[in-house]
Design goal:
- By secondary structure, the protein is of the alpha/beta class.
- It is built from six helices and 14 strands.
- It folds into two domains: 139 residues, Rossmann fold; 70 residues, ACT domain (Alpha-Beta Plaits, 2-Layer Sandwich).
- The strands form three sheets. Strands 3-2-1-4-7-13-14 form a seven-stranded mixed sheet, sandwiched between helices.
- Helix 3 links the parallel strand 2 and strand 3.
- Helix 1 crosses helix 2.
- The protein starts with a helix and ends with a strand.
- The structure holds ribulose-5-phosphate (5RP).
Length: 225
């Protein structure tokens, strides 16, 4: 079992009968979904799920989990997802995928947002390993690029892997991947980006995390906010 699997199994123990559980997106979230399905069939655990992406919804359906539409819920007990970077103050960078809008919506709406990582995701400062993904309305991208440059960010529209088109998110936005030369920390950057019109959503999750579970060297560390 690798660290991602281990931490996903550990987090699945947090799910209790009757809960509504938000499913994240990515390889760690997939391990969590599989473990939930095992607990449902082997331990008769009863719960419902809501998904942050079509990919996770399909997986949940295939495994026989009871799936609620995000438009039909008015809250959820737990949201469990991975992250690309985690800073010491539990600010996150997410969004290597294409589902930021739903992910942040669920993270904010959940009574408890648990983040599952391995040790490679820990950073001193958000943006250390990856650019910040910024979802923009297609007609707004140039003006957003300019506003972002004014706060020290430089980036371009994300292209498809074979470079023959632009990535479009599940929300219908384009993505600017932006590196910041300024020394603003994740929290400050979050506030600056929130104030720019034309940005639909961005990958910094500040003040949302309840706990980070980190799998490393065969064990799991918990860090609570
Ligand atoms: C998707 C995400 C993922 O949670 C993040 O990319 C981590 O993925 P993985 O668990 O595969 O390492 O933010 O938008």
């Amino acid at each position: 079992m690798n660290d991602k699997q281990r931490v996903a199994h550990y987090a699945a123990q947090q799910v209790q009968n009757g809960m509504v559980v938000g499913l994240g997106t990515g390889s760690t979230a997939n391990f969590f979904i599989e473990e939930l399905a095992r607990r449902q069939s082997e331990e008769n655990l009863k719960f419902k799920v809501v998904s942050s992406s079509v990919v996770s919804a399909n997986k949940a359906k295939q495994l026989g989990l009871a799936l609620l539409g995000i438009e039909h819920i008015d809250g959820l007990d737990l949201y469990v997802d991975g992250a690309d970077e985690v800073a010491p103050d539990l600010t996150l960078l997410k969004g290597r995928g294409y589902d930021l809008v739903r992910e942040k919506l669920l993270a904010k709406a959940a009574d408890s947002f648990l983040v599952l990582i391995d040790a490679s995701k820990r950073v001193k400062r958000i943006g250390e390993n990856f650019p910040i993904p910024i979802e923009v309305s297609p007609f707004a991208w140039r003006l957003v690029q300019r506003s972002v440059a004014a706060i020290g960010g430089h980036g371009n529209l994300r292209q498809t892997p074979n470079q023959d088109g632009l990535v479009v998110t599940s929300h219908g936005s384009l993505v600017l991947d932006v590196a910041f030369e300024s020394n603003l920390d994740g929290k400050a950057l979050n506030e600056r980006l929130n104030a720019i019109p034309g940005i639909v959503e961005h990958g910094i999750f500040s003040g949302l995390t309840r706990a980070v579970f980190c799998g490393h060297d065969g064990k799991v560390d918990e860090q609570w906010a």
